[in-house]
Amino acid sequence: MTLTPLPALTDNYIWILHNGREALVVDPGEAQPVLEALERESLTLHSILVTHHHGDHTGGVQVLREATSAKVYGPAHEKMPEPITRLVEGDRVNALGLEFIVIDVPGHTAGHIAFFAEPRGAHPILFCGDTLFSAGCGRLFEGTPAQMLDSLQKLSSLPDDTRLCCTHEYTLSNLRFALAVEPSNQALVDYDVHCRALRTVGTPTLPSNLLLERNINPFLRTHLSSVADAVQSHDAVGVASAGVFATLRQWKNTFQ
Ligand code: ZN
Ligand code: FE
Fold first, then answer.
1. pLDDT at 238
2. Neighbour-count burial of 94, counting CB atoms closer than 10 A to its CB (0-12 exposed, 13-18 middle, 19+ buried)
């Protein structure tokens, strides 16, 4: 199985997973990069997985469906380019000999879902859309901080070696904020150096993995005093009224 992020639009990745014959793609915000990859590798598109309704994740679905007759799977409660198979937590999607389990992760949007699979003999795969990013998390457009925190806790409880397939290359800007929160987290300092080197030569920083994220991502670390104390010093009133996680997310929204 080959797992690759195809750069799309400004800073999106469309994940493509294939076995040399058949492929699936996740969140195709545009069709062209997918059509080129299918052509280049002589692949048939078997299925399209969609995590949420935003245009930068769905814009290529209609063209790809018509060009390939791939089946489209997406969240049960969001506006989608029809016809799609609608999914809720616990549903399964079988593709390329893998079974993807659907996880409800509201927060970025109200009906956002994620897809998790454990391929035999390989590290688990999580397609998490705009919920969890490397060193960050999605903006709260439709959900509450409590919903997002709950969604991130679900994802964070997956196995350590889970490959985290996020849909944007936001890592360096997320790291700048993460370092403002936890300047003396050595794992974070080291990861920032590593990611800068990757981006200098245009290499994606993704997939990340969950063990690393639990050590460097402030949004998975709000229960730790290193993060909670920093948020408290930044905005004690916010913490008193809304809690650590909501105040951290608010801090990031206005961080320059
Ligand atoms: Zn989005
Ligand atoms: Fe997005």
1. 98
2. exposed
* 3-class state of residue 182 by DSSP: coil
Q: How far apart are CA 141 and CA 139, in angstroms?
A: 6
Question: What's the pLDDT tens digit per position in 148-204?
Answer: 999 999 999 999 999 999 999 999 999 999 999 999 999 999 999 999 999 999 999
**Catalytic residue set:** 52, 54, 56-57, 108, 130, 168
Q: What is the pLDDT of residue 222?
A: 98
Q: What CATH architecture does domain 2-254 belong to?
A: 4-Layer Sandwich (3.60)
167 alpha carbon – ligand 2 mean position (Å): 6
Tokens of 152: 């991130």
Tell me the pTM: 0.97
For ligand 2, the distance from its centroid to the CA atom of residue 245, given in whole angstroms, is 21
Q: Which ligand is nearest to the CA of 170?
A: 2
List residues bridging with 22 in a β-sheet: 44
CB 2 within 8 A of CB 18: yes
